[in-house]
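[Meeting: bench + compute handoff]

Bench side (C.D.) handed over the final construct sequence. Compute side (W.E.) agreed to return the predicted structure before the next meeting so the bench team could plan truncations. Sequence as handed over:
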Amino acid sequence: MLAGGCFWGIQAVVSSTSKALPDAACRLCRRCAERCAQYDTVSSGRTSHAEAVRVTFNPREISYGKILQIYFAVAHDPTQLNRQGPDTGPQYRSEIFPQSDAQAKVAKDYIAQLDAAKAFKRPIVTKTQTMKAPFYAAEAYHQDYAINHPNQPYIAFNDAPKVENLEKMFPDVWRDQPVTVAEAAKTN
């Protein structure tokens, strides 16, 4: 599960990555009940929710490390604290939600490697300590939003460039036809 700004952009990138499937745009939380996971409540920034995308993948086909490379290189700016582009608030934070101790170690080691190499001009602020946070699916209209609304100004300006960068930087995993959440659910 990956958070990095509005989940529309993360989902658009995952949908265009071969061997990785967008499971759902969602909200993750450490302390709140499901009733707190509604859009209006989360948008206030007063909950502990993060807009995130649950990613399904087969590690024999694409590694968790490769997914993290894509996440840090094109899906968001991991140096922005509690914001991404025009979106501000803790719900837009950069956070990886590892599903195992092994994933947590890979994520922490990769962040340390990127920081040591000074891959970014500022330090990485991505959190990794939350394991298996409760998952609450976002409202249906959020699912596949970037795919369904490619000409919407927010998508064209903020999210389409991420998908274009995926194609340029990771042609080995680029998928020309994005997979929707509904299509991904059929293959799981």
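W.E. noted at the follow-up: Residues 28-37 have pLDDT under 50 and may be disordered. C.D. will use this when planning the next construct.
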